Records
---
Amino acid sequence: MPFAAGAALGETPRHRGFRVLMRDHPMSPTPQSVVFALAAIVVAMHLAPAGAQPLSVTPGEDLRVLYATPLDIAEGERVAEASCKGCHGLAGISTAKEVPHIAGQRAAYLYAEVRTYKQGGRGDNPMAGAVKLLSDDSLMKAAAYYASLEPAQPAAGAAKNAPMKPDPVQAGRAAAAACAGCHGEDGVSKTPGTPSLAGLDPKYVVAAMLAYRSGQRKNDLMKALVGTLSDTDMSNIALHYALQKPARAQTPAPGDAAAGKAAAAACSGCHGEHGVSGSPSNPNLAGQDAQYIAVAVRAYKDGARSNDLMKGPAASLDERAARDIAAYYASQQPQAPNVRKPVTPAELAQQCDRCHGVGGNSTDPRAPSLAAQRADYLEKALQAYRKGTRKSTAMAAMSEMLGDSDIEGIAAHYSRQKARFAVYVLVPAR
Ligand code: HEC
Ligand code: HEC
Ligand code: HEC
Ligand code: HEC
């Protein structure tokens, strides 16, 4: 039982600093063993100072729980038995959806949160009712009790609860291998009549694949090639091409680009001044294979490819004008669409670990550990911060930048981390 360590050594709250030591297991809760274990820790800290980090904390009401005695903890167990066990279990390891594990959670955090629930600060939920009638003293003891327990570890079934999503960039690259023979290794075409895919907006590329699949865009070859892909495959492939460096297609452009430039004025309203449109529904034409452009214009004109917006502009072009416009666009410099490489949960977690500790094992008694927490609860908490229904200045800023899939990924990431126990050892004032 670590938090009585100071008391066991006759320390008092006037000491201003703690040392924190991360352990794989809590110490046994008898006063003698605390002293022995503490001696061992002090030795261990001298031998391996890298494992221990000094914390500068100001004692106050919120840190009262760090001075809980073995007696307080024994009383806390009785409070837990009577008021918490039904939902959190006596071991603090939850088996219910969206009910958090609280065993081994940092003590000052637990105590602060139960008081927040009591004051209605975390909204109307089962917890608010459970703690409403308990005194701060009982809550402090219950917090000290749960903090002293062995934390939950990543569940054997965690992989099933929170399947690891493959990295979309890698998955896209792998799936696009089947397309490289025609569309070019990096999506820059070397085959006249086959479009480059690099430099196209991923939303447009997905829409095109869906149109082939549904038959709305008629092309037997492309239907066969993309018709069996899942929606996820499609978006991964589109992302892969969007991240490639676009270049002009390495194919001949037989028309008169100068004549084409003048005629292209009629197209620039939708396709952009130099063939870079800026809108995902209007495909970029800059650097596109010239033969493909000319064939597409003919297809819109004769109705083989039907699109209300393109029918008019295409109808006004004869073969020669179409070829000239194609040569003009093919000569323009394509640009990469505005798509950033998605951040992986592990990369994202580096920003969270700053406060939540390495692998989500917090060293600050006031900041929650996230390691091995239930993924469903972590998701719910992050959604609540993002919506503003759970208030925290730090977390409002951090959750704002997260999309739904980031939240899913990061929750799965932390639910899989090994949970470690933090021992707070008072550092005597010098
Ligand atoms: C009726 C079921 C129920 C009972 C009884 C209950 N809890 Fe909870 N507890 C919950 C639920 C559900 C949540 C998550 C609520 C939310 O999403 O904010 C929660 C959340 C918590 C949290 C926040 C954990 C975190 O990681 O932020 C703490 C701390 C906590 N409970 C402690 C206790 C203590 C101590 C008791 C007994 C005094 C207790 N609970 C009794 C259902 C219960
Ligand atoms: C055998 C050669 C070949 C292969 C392999 C191939 N494509 Fe195509 N692709 C074409 C041709 C030819 C067109 C032009 C069809 C048309 O006129 O509609 C095309 C058109 C497309 C378009 C429409 C582009 C636009 O600008 O509208 C997309 C998107 C596309 N292919 C994606 C893929 C993907 C993804 C794969 C791999 C899973 C793939 N293709 C494999 C030949 C191929
Ligand atoms: C009113 C807006 C608009 C104008 C003007 C317009 N386009 Fe389009 N264009 C579109 C849209 C929208 C599409 C995508 C249609 C689809 O999904 O098949 C498209 C598609 C195309 C394509 C197929 C590109 C690909 O990757 O498959 C070509 C080629 C094209 N336009 C050429 C032209 C030319 C040349 C002109 C001028 C003569 C022109 N467009 C004028 C809206 C426009
Ligand atoms: C600047 C410090 C800081 C950073 C960075 C930070 N957090 Fe937090 N986080 C906190 C604090 C403080 C709390 C407790 C807030 C409260 O009382 O609700 C918290 C609470 C949480 C909770 C609720 C835990 C529980 O048991 O209820 C989750 C989940 C969480 N953070 C996830 C994250 C994720 C994911 C990131 C990175 C994207 C992150 N945090 C980055 C400080 C931080």
---
Amino acid sequence: MASKMQVLFLAFLSMTSSFIVCQANSGYGYGFGWGSGGGNNYNSLSPYFYDFSCPQANDIVVSVLENAISQDPRMAASLLRLHFHDCFVQGCDASILLDDSAAFVSEKRAKPNVNSLRGFTVIDIIKARLEEECPETVSCADILALVARGATVLSGGPGWEVPLGRRDSKAANMLLANATIPPPILTAQKLIASFKQQGLDEVDLVALSGAHTIGVARCTSFKARLYSQNGNSEADVSLEKAYLNELKSVCPSSGGDNNITPLDYASPRSFDNTYYKLILGGRGLLFTDQQLYSGNYATLAQLVKSYADDEGLFFDQFAKSMVKMGTISPLLGSNGEVRKNCRRAN
Ligand code: HEM
Ligand SMILES: *[C@@H]1O[C@H](CO)[C@@H](O)[C@H](O)[C@H]1NC(C)=O
């Protein structure tokens, strides 16, 4: 009986490996991630990457997320944002998670991130549980991708199949983080250019901006709009008046730079399409949010309207665009490493 099982298993193995070879040759390499340190040479990502080496990976991620979000509802937003800030800087390689080292300054201290990004200790908890159950197997970059989906789903948003098999970088790049993460003062044209540099188009830009349906921003991120948008002591004309006055009460003209307010005040904890509805009424919080509709760019404005009209359409496109963003320049095969601790290279 045992030997029959072994024969069957070997047959399965040989079928599987020829399948892998076939697929790899045709450029679709399904990485099955047969355990740790096995020198995987797969040349693309696959949702099945951990099916044999760590099938419980996503369950672990989700259970830690449920706990973290129940203690701090904003955490869903903070964690979703990490994947974006990771992927826009030398690809989705968990460079965002590295602390300062002798060799480099961390991206955490870059302008778009400092005093703003959060959630690193939640990632540490997930990584520690994964190291207990499947040592040296699940990369920190893949954790960020699974976390982004988990945070979206737990907030009421769409799910998607997460391509996996990214490896982790050995270094971070603060200069690049300063340069490539878009600041909230960009015009529509410049937002499009910023996303285009990452291989993302206008549809991706509008759909991914919908992540601002959850979470908050500090006054410093939008204060110029309230008091002196063009250095002329006038508020941004695209900002609806009653909303402008409310924001002024949260953010005084001097001080209060770290006060926070929701990006989508209508439903700040629920992943839905109200973000777009607010923008239609001049109630986008960031200049860049409002630019999608008020930036004299018809393609973007039309997309905002269609997502405001049809939440299902937004959800479908958000899912597709998250997969696309999640595949920006991954480290594959024997490039990079699987970090044991997400905060430092091995
Ligand atoms: C389109 C260009 C984007 C710009 C200019 C931008 C800018 C910002 C800024 C300035 C904040 C507030 C930070 C602070 O004041 O501390 C913020 C928050 C946030 N961003 Fe974006 N963002 C963009 C795209 C995205 C994308 C693509 C995602 C994810 C897919 C995302 C997810 C978030 C989330 C969830 C928050 C709230 C975080 C929290 O509450 O901790 N953003 N963003
Ligand atoms: C990036 O931005 C930070 C924060 O504003 C600044 O201190 C740092 O000098 C910048 N780093 C580089 C390498 O440009």
